[in-house]
Structures are given as C-alpha cells and as structure tokens.
C-alpha cells in the first residue's frame, strides 16, 4: 500500500510524468478497442448492401465487392423482398422518411432481380470471403504502421506536442477504420466510436500542422489553438442528439458529418501548403516537403488502383492499394523525430516528378478512352468520329501545353530557385578556393550575399583567439563605424531567439539576420545582414541560400584563419628572434669585454649602462610576447578597481618625459575628473605605449599633447595623445592595431619596435570596456584616443 502511495505521490509531484501516464492509459484503451474490433472483424462476414427509396420503390443502391451480397449475386437495382426475417415492406416502413437503409442494419436479405429470380444472403452460418479477410488484414497492417510510428515518435520525443498529436492521430485513425469495419459486421458500440474518432481525426491533423513549424513554438502553449476541435465537438454532440435514429445515422446529418471531415482535411492540407510557402526556417520547409511527398507516394497509387476496372481489380489482392497509405505516418514521423532532415530534392529528382506527371496524364487519357469504349455500342459513326477527334485533342493538350505548364509550376515552386541558388553557391565556392587572403575571402562572402539578395548592407565579424569579435569585411549601411559598434553591442547581447534562422529585427529594425558561422563545434565568426533594399520579406529560398553560403563560407574562413595563424606564428618567431637577437648580442658582447678587459671607470660605466638598457629592452620584449600570448589564448586577467585617472596620467607622463629631453609636452587634463573602474597597471601601460610611440615618431622639438576630457552625455572619459610626427596613411590605419604590423617608410627605418604595442593596447582597452581609435594625416601628425567608461 505504501509503495502504491509513493508511486502516486511521485506522479502527482511530477506533472510531466503524470501526463505521460494518463496519456499511456488513454492510448492503451483506444489501442485495445481498435485491435479488438479488427479481431472481431476478421472472422465475421457482412452483407454489404445499402438500400434506398426512389421513384420505383425500395431497391439495392450499392453492393460492397467484398460482402456476402456480392457473393450471392445481388446487384444494384434489385428489389428487396425480405429483410432480417421480416417482409421488406414491414421492415422498411419506419425508414421511408430517411429514404435509405445502411448496411449496418442488415443481417439477412432476400431480393428479386428484373428476371424475377430470388437471391438470399444471411450472415449467420456464413464465412467471410478471402477478399474480405485480406481487406481487414491490409487495413490492420496500415493501422499498425500508424501505431508503431506514433508510439516510436512519442517515446523519442515524449514532451514534444507534435509527437503527442501524431501518436493520437494514429490512434484515432485506427479506431475510425476498425470501428467502421466492425460496424459493418454489427459489432456493438463500434459505429458510435467510429463516428467520434472520424470526427476528431481531421482536426487533430490540423492541430499537428499548425504547431509543427519551429517558427510557431509560441502557439504550442496557447490555449486558443484548441478551438480547432470545436467543429469536432459540435459534430459528436449533434450526432448523439439528432444525427442517429432507428439504429443508423440520418442521411442529412451524414452529409453534415462528411462536410465536417472534409473541412478538417482541407484546412490541414491548407496548413501544409501555407507552412511550405511561408516557411522562414529551412527545417520547416523540408518537413512540409517530406509530408507532401509521403502523401503523394500514398495517395497516387491508392487512387490509381481504386479507379481500375473491376476485371483488373479482381486480379489484385483486396486491400493492396490500402498498404500505400502507410507512407503518410512514416513521412510525418520522420519530419517530427529527425533533427537533421535530408534534402528531399536529393531523393526526388526532377525527372521523377516529371515522370509522375506523365503517368497521371496517361491515366487521365486512359480513363477517357475506357469510358468511351464502354458506351461505344450505343453511339453512331458520326459521334464516334467526333469523340475520336476530341480524344486526340485531349491527348495533345495533356502531353503538350498542360504537361509543360505543370512542369513550369513544379520548377517554380520546387526546383528552379533552388537550382539557381545552388549555382550561386557553387560559383562562390569556386571563387573562394582561388583566394588565400583572409580579408579578400571576407569581402567576397559579404559582397556575394549582399548583391544576390539585394540587401542594404552586410558585415562579417570574425572571432579572434582572445574571444573578441573584429570586423573583417563590411558593405552598405554597415560600413559605418558607428553601425559596427552597435552590431558589436548586439552580438554581446544576442540569444537563440535572435540567431538565424530566427529574425533579428526585433532587436534592431535595420538588422535581418545574425548568422553564426561554425566549423564543427567551433565558432568562426558572425555574419550580420540587413533587410532587403526593397523591404520585401525573406523567402524560404532566401533562407536556403544563406544556409548554403554560410556553410561554404565557414570552411573557407576557417582555412584562411588557420593559414593566417600559421603566418602570424612564423612572423611572431621571426620578429621575436630578430628583436631579441640584437639586444642579447649587445649584452653578451659587453659582458664578454668586462670579463676579459679592465677598462677605465668611465668606459666601464658606459658598458654597464648599455647592458642595463638592452636588458630592459629584452625584458620589455618578453613582456610584450607574453601579453600577446595571453591575449590570443583568452587568458587576459583584468583587475578592475577604483582609479584616480589624473594620478595615472601624471605618472605615465613623468615616465615619458624621463625618456626624452628633445620634445615639448603639453598637458590639457580637465579638472575634477571622476574616478574610473579600470585595471590601473594595464591602463598605465596603454597610455604609456601611446606616449612612447609619440616620442619615437615625432621629430626633435616636436610637441606632444596629453589631454583628458569628460563626455558626460556618453558617460565616458576620452584620453588623447596628439603628436606632430610623420602621420599614418590610410593603408596602415586598418592594420595598425594588429600584431606585428609596423609602418614601413624611409622615415621609420632605425626606429625600434616589435609591432605588438598597439595590438596589446587595443585588446586591453576593449577588455576593460573601453575603445581606442586614431585620427591622422600623412606628415601632419596623429591623435590617438582612448575612451574609458565613467
């Protein structure tokens, strides 16, 4: 007892498990009822005749090809004389208002044909025909496919609403079919359950397709979506109130039920078409395409085999056409449970679709010829000639303009755009393979994307080894520096809801997509794309193109970054060995002289000073190399503390003044600057490096100005260092803050430097939440700015 209470307590505590337990119990009941109906149906015969009242009185309206009536030779138009042991007139009296008696009421039937022959059939002591048994088995196998697929998908995705609906859909489909067969064989309650299941089924399907697309995840928890079941509820309630009398459904209400079923299926088909046409996600488009293809694979053979002449159908095993319906649950289940859907275009080639179109055209023409031959004996020669000409015209139209028109539509909606986009992707891939430079590759990727989709702009950020994002190429509206800063802010705040294929327009109206470019599990960069210039929405084909372009771009960018890293490593070793060799050679030389000679005190002091200076140079070089290594490995340690900025600037300026007596220093520091939260040592290093460069690249007697001003409206303090040096050209501006870049001009020869200082300054400034940039003109000096958050 305690164990049972514990289990119940755990179920109540975990609502998810409770739902699964309740659903499992419900599903088990439906499954048991369906299997029971199939078991009862397989061994029971049924009469399979429908009677109707017309101008000539009561006659046999239709005869099921697998029923006992057909075996007994009863045909349409025969007149009933006795039903269920009663005279036909007595039995049919209460059904005259309805005007029809369905097969579910008939146990025994005796009729007379036009020749006056009596034909009788009775369920009792009769056995079902082989075709009847085969039909039940075929439907059971089909339902088994629905059940297995539904339960498999549900077990794989137990908390997925689409999986739950698919499983329920399979269960209700099986209950409707098994109930229909059991009702024909007069199994109690079967007809009522069949009506309820058939009423709910189409609306379950509609619900499934409404919430399946990942773009409509918000709809899954919206209670209003359950209003789709309102027609089903109305149908079931009205059926039991006014739609059922004297043991059978009323004909008028039967039409209402069929309209309800048809409306549900049409709306479900419309939802599939809408999802396909309006899909923003490649996954959604593939899901809908797989569902459409699976439905075609099921319905086309089913319908073609159903319209075959009776003589041909007698050769084919009964229910064989039903087995093709199994493709529907298989396709739907695959669309739900598989994360990476195959591209159905790879499987369903254009030639296959064209071949299917040709077969359908041939089937239509064959049907026209068949019906013409069926009535040719009653036609005159002139009419036969006219019909022959008409058939020729139909054939010419079917295999001419109609077939070509359908193929054009297929191309337009399924293949043409994809084919063109694949050409673009292939062309981009070929062009990228010819390039090696990282910048050229980045520009080609952005340019191709922007031009192909007619975008207002695009910007590609690559992810540096330090983890920060840096612009590698920009075009259009995103070429503006301020826009790029805004994008960097958005990148730091992005979430899965704003990442491709979801739209990023919710965080920025000019932004359409933030596409993360990855190779394996490694993020290479992010491609930011604007809206289209035409302001049109992105189609699902556009999304496919972006998916293909970024896949190609990822590989090329990753390869280019690896080559660049190798080149940087080689440069690193080359610069380090060159820059270290010179001072080390000097240190070793003077140390050797001091060991083997005894110079005068003045000379000794000069040699020792050279050893000290070169040792300090080596120490600074090693520090820079270590700092670069830490930055690129993402191991920079920032220690934020309250710092009095004026004190840091005074100390740094004093050190700069000690390094030279040939320059004029001007100080323009605003009074009462607020304290800032920064890493004191790193901030001092950044400003000191800029001052050191100003000293090195300014002529003797040149003026160096250190300024600091509070920009309260932007909540930052801007420190600037202006010099009257050689200036910096546009070509060097873009590369100045990268590793090992030095200005190669005649004026710079003989000036020592490793090309690492400004790179370190930029990385540290940005790591502390600041910003660094410069303004410069050739031969007119430069101004370096460092913005510090206040």
Give a description of the structure.
- The protein is of the alpha+beta class.
- The chain folds into five domains: 259 residues, Rhopdopsin 7-helix transmembrane proteins (Up-down Bundle), CATH 1.20.1070; 74 residues, Pdz3 Domain, CATH 2.30.42; 86 residues, no CATH class; 199 residues, GAF domain (Beta-Lactamase), CATH 3.30.450; 149 residues, Heat Shock Protein 90 (2-Layer Sandwich), CATH 3.30.565.
- It is built from 23 helices and 20 strands.
- The strands form six sheets. A five-stranded mixed β-sheet has the order 15-17-18-20-19. It has a four-stranded antiparallel β-sheet with strand order 4-3-6-7. The chain has a four-stranded antiparallel β-sheet with strand order 11-10-13-12, with helices on both faces.
- α7 packs parallel to α9, α14 runs antiparallel to α15 and α15 runs antiparallel to α16.
Within the CATH hierarchy, at the fold level, what is the topology of the largest domain?
Answer: Rhopdopsin 7-helix transmembrane proteins
Separate helix tally: 23
| Domain module tally | 5
Would you count the extended β strands for me?
A: 20
Average pLDDT works out at 79
Helix content: 55-70%
**What's the name of the CATH homologous superfamily of the largest domain?**
Rhodopsin 7-helix transmembrane proteins
Terminal-residue CA separation = 68 Å
């Amino acid at each position: 007892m305690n164990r049972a209470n514990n289990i119940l307590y755990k179920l109540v505590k975990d609502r998810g498990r409770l739902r699964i337990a309740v659903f499992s119990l419900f599903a088990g009941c439906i499954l048991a009822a369906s299997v029971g109906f199939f078991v009862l149906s397989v061994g029971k015969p049924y009469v399979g005749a429908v009677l109707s009242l017309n101008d000539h009185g009561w006659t046999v309206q239709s005869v099921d090809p697998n029923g006992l009536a057909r075996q007994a030779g009863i045909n349409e138009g025969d007149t009933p004389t006795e039903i269920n042991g009663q005279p036909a007139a007595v039995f049919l009296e209460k059904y005259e208002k309805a005007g029809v008696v369905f097969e579910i009421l008939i146990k025994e039937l005796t009729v007379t044909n036009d020749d006056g022959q009596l034909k009788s059939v009775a369920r009792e002591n009769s056995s079902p025909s082989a075709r009847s048994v085969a039909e039940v088995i075929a439907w059971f196998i089909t339902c088994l496919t629905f059940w297995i697929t539904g339960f498999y998908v549900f077990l794989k995705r137990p908390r997925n609403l689409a999986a739950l609906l698919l499983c329920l859909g399979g269960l209700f489909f099986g209950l409707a079919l098994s109930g229909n067969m059991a009702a024909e064989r007069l199994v109690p309650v079967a007809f009522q359950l069949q009506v309820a299941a058939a009423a709910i089924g189409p609306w379950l399907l509609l619900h499934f397709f409404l919430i399946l697309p990942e773009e409509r995840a918000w709809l899954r928890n919206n209670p209003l979506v359950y209003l789709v079941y309102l027609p089903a509820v109305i149908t079931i309630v009205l059926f039991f109130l006014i739609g059922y009398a004297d043991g059978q459904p009323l004909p008028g209400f039967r039409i209402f039920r069929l309209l309800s079923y048809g409306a549900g299926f049409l709306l479900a088909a419309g939802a599939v078409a809408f999802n396909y046409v309006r899909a923003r996600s490649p996954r959604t488009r593939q899901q809908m395409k797989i569902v459409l293809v699976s439905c075609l694979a099921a319905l086309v053979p089913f319908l073609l085999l159903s319209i075959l002449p009776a003589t041909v159908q007698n050769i084919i095993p009964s229910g064989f056409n039903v087995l093709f319906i199994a493709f529907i649950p298989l396709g739907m289940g695959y669309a739900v449970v598989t994360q990476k859907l195959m591209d159905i275009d790879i499987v369903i080639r254009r030639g296959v679709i064209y071949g299917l179109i040709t077969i359908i055209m041939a089937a239509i023409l064959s049907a026209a010829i068949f019906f013409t031959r069926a009535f040719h004996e009653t036609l005159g020669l002139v009419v036969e000639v006219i019909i022959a000409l008409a058939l020729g015209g139909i054939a010419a139209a079917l295999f001419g303009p109609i077939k070509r028109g359908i193929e054009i539509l297929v191309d337009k909606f399924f293949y043409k755009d994809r084919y063109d986009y694949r050409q673009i992707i292939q062309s981009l891939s070929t062009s990228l393979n010819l390039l090696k430079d990282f910048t050229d590759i980045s520009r080609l990727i952005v340019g191709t994307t922007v031009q192909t989709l007619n975008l207002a702009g695009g910007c590609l950020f690559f992810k540096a080894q330090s983890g920060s994002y840096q612009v590698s190429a920009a075009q259009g509206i995103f070429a503006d520096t301020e826009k790029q800063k805004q994008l960097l802010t958005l990148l730091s705040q992005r979430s899965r809801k704003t990442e491709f294929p979801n739209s990023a327009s919710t965080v920025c109206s000019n932004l359409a997509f933030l596409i993360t470019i990855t190779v394996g599990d490694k993020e290479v960069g992010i491609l930011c794309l604007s809206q289209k210039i035409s302001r049109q929405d992105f189609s699902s084909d556009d999304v496919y193109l972006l998916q293909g372009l970024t896949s190609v771009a990822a590989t090329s960018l990753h390869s280019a970054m690896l080559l660049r890293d190798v080149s940087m490593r080689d440069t690193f070793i080359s610069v380090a060995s060159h820059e270290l060799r010179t001072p080390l050679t000097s240190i070793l030389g003077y140390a050797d002289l001091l060991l083997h000679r005894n110079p005068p005190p003045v000379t000794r002091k000069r040699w020792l000073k050279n050893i000290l200076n070169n040792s300090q140079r080596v120490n600074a070089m090693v520090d820079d190399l270590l700092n670069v290594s830490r930055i690129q490995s993402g191991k920079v340690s920032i220690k934020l503390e309250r710092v009095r900025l004026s004190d840091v600037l005074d100390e740094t300026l004093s050190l700069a003044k000690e390094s030279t007596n040939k320059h004029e220093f001007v100080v323009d520091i605003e009074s009462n600057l607020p304290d800032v939260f920064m890493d004191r040592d790193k901030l001092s290093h950044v400003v000191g490096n800029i001052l050191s460069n100003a000293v090195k690249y300014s002529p003797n007697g040149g003026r160096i100005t250190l300024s600091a001003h509070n920009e309260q409206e932007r909540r930052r303090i801007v420190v600037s260092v202006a010099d009257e040096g050689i200036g910096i050209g546009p070509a060097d501006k873009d590369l100045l803050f990268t590793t090992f870049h030095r200005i190669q001009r005649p004026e710079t020869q003989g000036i020592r430097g490793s090309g690492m200082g400004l790179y370190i300054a930029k990385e540290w400034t940005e790591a502390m939440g600041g910003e660094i940039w410069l303004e410069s003109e050739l031969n007119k000096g430069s101004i370096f700015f460092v913005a510090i958050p206040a």
